Predict the structure.
Amino acid sequence: VGVLSSGSIVAGGQANDHGERYIWLVKVGSDGCLEEYSCGLVVTGMEEEVREGAGGMLVYPNPANSTVTIELKEGALSSDGLVVFFNAQGQEVLRKILPAKNRENTFSVEHLLPGLFYIEIKDSGHNTLQQSKLIINH
């Protein structure tokens, strides 16, 4: 359980069943309303590239191993922005600049522990524009 910079609360967990890992995530907004719920995501030992779109943002591969690419829709940022990674407890674990001129940006995630992460794309005023989830599975 953790609190994001937006004031939202996130809670996540996992369960193992016969070699498969089931991961869940709940996000409750600062107003107390359920914003997102994801359940039943299965992570196996199989490497598979999954491209998940969230309002003009693609995050892949997902699950990620050593790097992750974030692809933004053309014109998503009018000036340089930020990508911020939060762990399942809501703690910021990585912050990188997103150049407005780049549609695709690849980042190393080798130093992050395996698990569920929440990604926020912020504009130059630190307003959240896009959000997505990422699983890191080294």
